[in-house]
Amino acid sequence: MASPTRVVAALSALAAALLIAGCTATPGAVTPTSTSAPSDTDADDFDDIEGTLLDDGRMFAVVTWGSSTCVPQVDTVTGNGQTVAVTLVDVDADEPCTADMAPRASIGALPEGVDPTQDITLQVTFGDASDDVEIGGSPVTGVPGESTDFLPSAGWIDDGTLVLLTWGSSGCPPVLGELEASGNTGTATFVTEEDKACTMDMAPRATLLSFGDDVVDDDDFTLTLVGGGLDGTVSVRGD
Hints:
Helices cover 5% and strands 40% of the residues. The protein is built from 2 helices and 14 strands. The strands form 3 sheets. A 7-stranded mixed sheet has the order 10-11-13-14-8-9-12, with no helix packed on it. It has a 4-stranded mixed sheet with strand order 3-4-6-7, with no helix packed on it. Strands 1-2-5 form a 3-stranded antiparallel sheet. A hairpin with a 2-residue loop joins strand 6 (120-126) and strand 7 (129-135). The longest helix has 9 residues, at 12-20. It is globular, with a radius of gyration of 17 Å.
């Protein structure tokens, strides 16, 4: 199978539905909230690329390191069997970037024909850097290429760190207030911003949550979301 696609094209059904509702979908314009680099992060880890499946197997996230204010965007996605080639690009090469080093999550849609219940290899290219990300299959009911149900989802990328996917205005991404965990449960409390002007689109927003050593068991982990219009629970996909 060879099915080149862009994120927006892969979610064309979603865009059409939103246009009917009077909104404009911009799935590629993801505004993640990134955590800062842990103090014990080795410099060699900055070249690593991690990934996970989201949205019940319809979408994926890849996590790279760099400036927290200049998050790469998924440009092209091409599927060949269970191997998916992903190209990341800088949104604006002329945009000034903060001089920090943080993990950033970029969201993309799996191409039609990829089976998320089976192992997947993401071949990620970002400028001169490239890496293969192996993602194990898991029981899901979502089908790549089909429209999302707009529910929050989350997946681990390594011990103690997960990517949370939520849907809403790209101009008003979730703002994390507090984060706590115990055993295989955690709570993320978000700031509820009153009277803030938000863009009238429905976009995927990626938020990186790092629990560190507070998570002692990431199997069957349940994340509770509080505030920010996100109240509910999410079962986190294992890494």
